[in-house]
Structure formats: C-alpha cells, structure tokens
Known about the structure:
- Helix 5 packs across helix 6 (149-161) and helix 6 (149-161) runs parallel beside helix 7.
- Strand 7 (167-171), helix 7 and strand 8 form a beta-alpha-beta unit.
- It is globular and about 65 Å long.
- The chain is built from eleven helices and twelve strands.
- The chain has a domain at 96-156.
- Helices cover 33% and strands 17% of the residues.
- Strands 6-7-8-3-9-10-12-11 form an eight-stranded mixed beta sheet, sandwiched between helices. A two-stranded antiparallel ribbon has the order 1-2. Strands 4-5 form a two-stranded antiparallel sheet.
- The protein has helices spanning 47-54, 77-84, 94-97, 104-114, 119-132, 149-161, 179-196, 207-213, 231-236, 241-248, 255-260; strands at 3-7, 21-27, 36-40, 66-67, 70-71, 87-90, 167-171, 199-204, 216-221, 224-230, 301-303, 306-308.
- Bound molecules: iron/sulfur cluster and magnesium ion.
- Residues 48, 172 line the site of magnesium ion.
- Belongs to the ABC transporter superfamily.
- One of its GO terms (molecular function) is ATP binding.
Amino acid sequence: RDLTMTFPGRRSATGRRGAPVRAVDGVSFDLAAGRTLGLVGESGCGKSTTGRMIVRLLQPTSGRVVLDGEDISRLSQGALRPLRGSIQMVFQDPHSSLNPRQTVARIISEPLLVQGRSAGDARRRAAELMELVGLIPEHIDRYPHEFSGGQAQRIGIARALATGPRLIVADEPVSALDVSVQAQIVNLMERLRAELGLAYVFIAHDLSVVKRVSDRVAVMYLGRIVEIGDKAALYANPQHPYTRALLSAVPLPDPAAERRRERIVLLGDPPSPAAPPPGCTFHPRCPKAQEICRTERPLLRLAASREVACHFPGD
Ligand code: SF4
Ligand code: MG
C-alpha cells in the first residue's frame, strides 16, 4: 500500500548532496494466495526496489506491506523473524547470489538451521528440495561453480523454498540465463506454484517473460505503476502508451503477423528519477503527448477493466 522509497541524493565531488531520489513513488497492489503478479519495466524504474521492500531487505520510506492483515513493514527484525520464512526472494544472477565457498547442502540448509532445525534434518530436507527443483540430490556436496547458470538458479529456488514460503519475490530470475534455459526455469516455477500453492511477484524488464507466469501484470515507469490489470486484457489491448511500446517490442511467433504489426520505438532513455519531468513523467517520450501531459500528472484510474495512469488511454 503506497510503497515509497526515497534514497538520499548522491554526494558530488564538492561534497554537496544532490536532491533525494524517489525510486518508488506510491506503489500499491494486491496479491492473492497462489497467484502471480508480473512487475515489468525498464531498468531503474523501481521494480527491484519494490521487491526488496516487500521482502524487507529495504525498509520503505513510507507505505505498508500487509501480509494476512498484518503490517510487516514496521516490524523490528526480531518481530519479523517468525514471518521471514513466509516471504523469500530469488535473485537475478544465480552465481553471484550463492556463496562460492559453501556447498549446496550448506546453502539450502542455512535458512533451516537459522530456524533451529538439526543439521541432519536440514541436510535431508536440502536433498529433497534438490530433487523437487530438478537437481540430482547426490550433488549435494558440490560447490556453486560446478553447476551451470540454470542449475545454479535451481539452487537459488531450492534455498528460497526451504522455509516453506507462501510468497516468492523473483527479481528477474531468468534474465541472466541463456534463452534456451529461460523456459525451463519459468516452467519449473510454474510447476512449483501449482504444486505448492505459491504466490509470486515476478519481476522482469520485458513483457514476454511474464506472459506465461502472470495472472495480473503491473507496468512500472519511473517509480510508479502506470498500468495494472488482468494479463489477458492487458496483452490483448494495452491502454497506456508505454505498455503499448513495451508490447510492440515483443516478437510474435507468427512471422506474417510479425511483419504486419507496428513497432513503437521510444525516443531516448528513461529520465533520471533524480529529476523526473513535470506532469506525466512519460511525456518526453510519449508519441501521444498533449499540452496537459506536460503539466498535469495523470493518476491511476479505471479504463477498459484495469487501472491506467494516462490522460488519453487506449488507441
Ligand atoms: Fe502520454 Fe499524456 Fe498519457 Fe502521459 S498522460 S502517457 S504523456 S498521453
Ligand atoms: Mg533490477
């Protein structure tokens, strides 16, 4: 609810601090048990920061994270501990998120040992988890570098599953992997969701990756959600010009359709969150921008059965 993260401005060479940077600005969404929200946007849009606030790797500047009616965003680390296992994170680069000096047994057991499980018990559970994610349990005493990128991400997923979470925030879990391996990991995550009743916040920088896994999709731009709604409706008929542009970059499987369709090429890079443009922050890049867009910020409101932050939603 209204998650906001403001980072202090960077210090310049002269020692003066720049203006504070609002990396995330009033992000709200609901996520039901067993469902997946795809969180999409270009790098720097605040999607990872949002994910990190949800798992409490970052304390939000303001706003709340409510789990089963309880606001967990202000709990002390001590009070948070019993809930820690309920929300876990899977990281983008599997190899750098695994300690190279620990065996897989150690990596996966760690959260269980923290919970007070015995070493033998934790090791048995780690072997079961390896099997669950499609790894060979006999490889339990190997080190991360002995695994491929895809296998390493399976280890990261097994570690996240160790405490029996209900929600996993997956921050670009397949972006660092070979294209041929991406589908395998996405399929694995889908199977685990169905078998274990997990909910995911699935973060990605493009709309093609989240298409298979999401029930709903939220598109972020410069720290805010600009469109959020049911996946099918959003893909079939995107309402925000930014969503339309992102979707037009997703390759279509049918080559004839691919040749026919229009490509919306966005001008320039996203502006710096340190100096967001006035009005609609997308206006300098928007092909539909009008005068009002330069001065008045559009708020999320209902359009075509979803929420859109645009003065001129639709075609
Ligand atoms: Fe484009 Fe205006 Fe809509 Fe912003 S409010 S996305 S500038 S049309
Ligand atoms: Mg990121």
